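Repro:
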Amino acid sequence: MINNKHYVNFSIIQKVTQKLEKYFSYKDGKPEVQKIIVYYANKQYFFNNETELGAFFIKQLYQHGDLFFSDRNVYTAPIFNLTPESIPVVAVLHSTHIKNIDALDSSPFKNVYKAMFENLSRYRAIIVSTEQQKLDVEKRINHTIPVVNIPVGYSETIDTSVQTLNQRSVKLISVARYSPEKQLHQQIELIKRLVSYVPKIELHMYGFGSESKKLNELIQKYGLENHVYLRGFLSNLDQEYSDAYLSLITSNMEGFSLALLESLAHGVPVISYDIKYGPNELITPDFNGYLITKNDEDALFDKVKYVIDHPEVQQRLSKGSLAKAQQYSKASLIKQWDQFVRLI
């Protein structure tokens, strides 16, 4: 409903004694919040935007001893930045923190983390998922606040026995979004080169995203319809891992790579580019997989072909994968979180 000041008045009445009003104006054809009024506990509060309202909400929630986590920093950091410093907040990073991972000391922070990094004194600590990112963030912020490494996930090992694989085909798998930073076209190029050496090779790619059409066109261009399959999103990959020979990662960057840990937990060795962050902490070369210099497609081809040509190596790497996954157990992760909360 538009009032005589050309504001749109939107009201929600939750209880007789509680009421929230939002006033909007139209800018470039889109509604824009101009004012928010909250009637709460027999008082009237005025806010200029939803960020201020969010900060008010946090202050009402807080009780002594509480600890807040800013997990979706692009939304939550601006809110926490407006709250009193007496309310403890810890920021959590789920990805690389800078725009250009090859310029650690000079690259601007990603927009999703900018509000947090520009107000470091507001936070008690930052949690990252790998030891290498911990070191990189500490250096970048000059140890202004503590940075703690706690893995973003844990493994639930499916089977501690190494399976004998069905040799009717050599099945490689990739679990990743169909997006540019995953560089999945390089995996298709890899299969194009391998087919003449390994006619029974297959690559199954699980995911979704904007690159689906381009990837499908590349598969058709090379005539790989019987070798490369875009499988889409599957909620449970247990069966898919059960007959997989190797898992591939060709990303430009990762935050941790839960898909890598999941693969190891199923006893599937991983061949990955040596990128920040995750692979070089989850993969011990010649124990549970191999690390390849980023974008070295010749080295990727050589290593994948080597493991295919030597099934005994694949079996040894499979055993190592299961052993490595045990280091990321649920019990270990709970212990790390418990220690962190007690210290903070």
